[in-house]
Amino acid sequence: MKAAESTLNLSLEDLYRINQIVLQAKEWKSALDQIARLIRPLFIFDNLVVYLVDPVSKHPETAYARAMGRGKHAEADVSWGETLAAQVCNTGKTSLLEPSEPANTDRLHRPYILGVPLIREDSVLGTIIFIRFGSPPFTEEQVSFSKFLANEITLLIDENRRHERLNELEAQHHIFRLQEDFMSTLSHEIRTPLGFIKGYTTTLLRSDTSWDAKTQREFLQIVDQETDRLQELIDDLLDSARLQSGRMRMNFQVVRLDAVVNDVVMRTRLHHPNLEVILNIDQPLKLIEGDPVRLAQVLQNLLNNAAKYAPGSKVWVNICNVDNGVKIDVIDHGPGIPPQYVPFIFDRFFRNPEQAPNVHGSGLGLFICKQILQAHQGEITVNTTLGIGSTFTVTLKEHIP
Amino acid sequence: MDTRILVVDDEVLYQHLVKVNLEAEGYEVITASNGEEALEMVASKRPDMVILDVMMPRLDGWTTCERIRQFSSVPIIMLTAKGEEQDRVRGLNVGADDYVVKPFSATELVARVRAVLRRAKTSEQVGQNRYFAHGNLKIDFARAEVWKENKPVYLSATEYRLLIQFAQHVGQVLTAEDLLTAIWGPQYSEDKEILWVSIARLRQKLEDNPHSPQHIVTRSGLGYLMPPIEKASL
User: Is residue A202 less than 8 Å (CB to CB) from chain B?
Assistant: First the structure.
């Protein structure tokens, strides 16, 4: 066996640079790529492999592999250190495997393999394997350096794992928060109309007071309105549950959207006499295929939202033909939606947390719209600017006979 | 004189509901839609009772109640959405006299109002002072503002609450434990250093000479006090 001839030519500056890469790394594999490029002129190896112990099967699995020198073209035919990896992962000890074949065999079949365990808090995460085809053997100094590298890589992998775990937990937490917010929104949304119904009914029922006919009528109208509000809330809840589980049946047919829209706009003018709705329809409008009741529900929802969240603004409903279908824009000049909440407004239960609590809503309306449009293979999007207003755009596919 | 009741709720329909029922009883009813408005009205209209909703945007009912209590002993009934025990305890802790859980019946509300007013009449009425003065220092409790030589002083929430503690106990020595428990909570009662830092900062803002304080004086080994004004001006 040849004596180890090369020693390590690493300077303090190289170590500093490795450390910088580790500190700045977002992801361990790309960091290892950078480190490998940096150290290869100083610490020769041909293949570099990282095996990580699978938490379930406890076997080492390849997580990273680079062929950097000789053997780059040999692909799967050369050694990748599998056997040594299993040994290192089992024992948790650095191991060196030197070739026993005679020096005149192809150097690709005479690998020097160095395996260093990746250990964190007494548990072996995996191993990093350096493979050198042919000479020279690894020196003691190089082995020490590879242990240093293994520590750095371990920190990176551990950091990455913690980060992934944190992201998972955050995602879970987000869902949990949404559900919790929903429960508190829902209980508020149910209690408020119930509170009015209870309050105004018991006011009418007071035995020590008599109310004139006009006042009685006013109280009864409030009770009536609040009953409708509860009814709407319950309908929304049922619809969203059905849509969520895919149990809502759509009654698809050829639809003239202008008829549907005219109908909804007329109803809106009746319900919100102060809301000015301006309707522009491209004629002749393409026919689409859909469930007219559900499409009307979408449009009604958008108009109700405009009345609720953009009070005092006119609302424009523009319908025009586009490639392959029809586009409906519902435009208001209201306060707009804060940009940080825009990605969530179609989520089930989501409500703008900055919304005053006396503007009621269940966080279901836009979710229902989105689900209905998905069932139609259509789309709903929003374009909104604070202080300028919001445009909700619905696109539906053309009916092809 | 008419009994005047302030109704505070962000829902117009609740304001209306309470108003019609109380007016039917012969009370004069004034309304406010949020906490800030309520504080101003308690100070300026001096109602005989406040009915305060808990769920309000910005300044919620709990905080509003606490702030009213800094300058007024007017009877307060909280309207809470939940009937859970922790809410009741919280209401009583911030100085509410009673609470009514939504949804409520009109007769229950009216009965509660009558009962609380009856109790309030038998107990001695304490004056309602919106302003507090100590030497060159003035506090407007309704707006949570502090003035020194007629110039506004900007205090953090903690500093303000600390100052209020002294203003409410003029001439009384307050121990570090008292102050820490009242402002930071019982788990901080041993954490004297944070109190020292806050008092030092408060003195920097309020005192002409923080090394010879007139408003917040140290009683070595005992605690701190705001001395009665004759002594402070000596």
Answer: yes
pLDDT digits (tens, 9 = 90+) for A117-127: 999 888 899 99
Record: contact A195-B104, CB cut-off 8 A: yes
**Which positions in chain B touch A356 (Cβ < 8 Å)?**
10, 57
B128 contacts B107 by C-beta, under 8 angstroms: no
Chains A, B: CB contacts within 8 A come to: 54
Distance CA A243, CA A252 (A): 16
Tell me, yes or no, if A215 comes closer than 8 A to chain B by beta carbon.
yes
| Chain A residue at shortest CA distance from B21 | A203
Q: Are B13 and A229 in contact (CB under 8 A)?
A: no
pTM (two decimals): 0.65
Query: Domain range holding B93?
Result: 4-122
Give me the percent of chain A exceeding a pLDDT of 90.
Answer: 43
Amino acid at A40: R
What span, in angstroms and rounded, lies between the C-alpha atoms of B193 and B203? Answer: 15
Say which CATH number the domain at B36 has.
3.40.50.2300
Same domain, B146 and B189: yes
pLDDT at B87: 72
Q: In this complex, is the C-beta atom of A335 within 8 Å of any C-beta atom belonging to chain B? A: no
Q: Domain boundary at B99, B122, B145, which?
A: B122
Whether this model's ipTM surpasses 0.85 comes out as no
